[in-house]
Design a protein that fits this description.
Blueprint (H helix, E strand, L loop, with lengths): L3 H34 L13 H25 L3 H27 L8 E5 L5 E4 L1 H22 L8 H19 L2 H5 L9 H21 L1
Antiparallel strand pairs: 1-2
């Protein structure tokens, strides 16, 4: 007989397995893209894609999010469980993506190497350590939320937690999009805005801790 605890553990394991395999696929796609656009190695300023190719790339990124949402939807029954699995999947996917690029290309050279993270709704850029930090937190917090949520041990978020989460999202997105203008204009990114980034991380952790205290 499959218990609720074993079902939740299986969901966590297989979600992580799917995300790891998908992270490798993502890394392979970027290896091909860099071979085409950056045969001498990835660097700024960016080599802009033709509009038709850029549309396809943006659609691929959107499809990535849909796939992660879909596997979380299939793996959990509760709202918190699904959110937790999505966070776990996103974090594992991103970490394995960087591992795959390092194994295939020897890139990034260090954690302070700059990267393009995403293209929706603009060009996200940052040193590699920033998305990796977010991903590590997503894996840990996501697994916790999924287990507790599936066990029915988490309350719905209250107004303050919604506000903290929204403020966190705005601050982190602002940090990642801060250099969109210069990069889109063909320049290298400037300094990474650490204050809004770490403020956003702190707000997210505050919401997480508050939720756990209310369970």
């Amino acid at each position: 007989m499959i218990t609720e605890r074993s079902r939740s553990s299986n969901a966590l394991i297989w979600t992580a397995v799917f995300a790891a395999a998908f992270g490798w696929v993502e890394a392979v796609v970027v290896v091909y893209l860099r071979e085409i656009y950056y045969p001498s190695g990835f660097t700024f300023p960016l080599e802009m894609m033709p509009p038709s190719t850029a549309v396809v790339e943006v659609a691929r990124e959107a499809a990535t999010l849909v796939m992660l949402v879909a596997v979380a939807r299939l793996g959990a029954r509760s709202g918190w469980g699904r959110f937790g699995l999505f966070a776990l999947a996103f974090g594992v996917w991103d970490l394995v993506y960087y591992l795959g690029l390092f194994l295939a290309l020897g890139w990034p050279e260090s954690l302070v190497t700059w990267d393009v993270l995403f293209l929706i709704p603009g060009i996200w850029t940052s040193p590699v350590w920033a998305p990796m930090l977010i991903s590590v937190l997503l894996v840990g917090c996501g697994a916790c939320l999924a287990r507790l949520g599936e066990a029915g041990r988490l309350p719905p978020p209250d107004r303050l937690e919604w506000l903290l989460a929204a403020a966190s999202l705005v601050a982190i997105l602002a940090a990642f999009l801060a250099n969109h203008g210069p990069v889109a204009a063909g320049a290298a990114p400037g300094a990474f805005p650490r204050l809004p980034f770490f403020s956003g991380v702190a707000l997210a952790l505050a919401a997480f801790v508050r939720l756990l205290r209310r369970r």
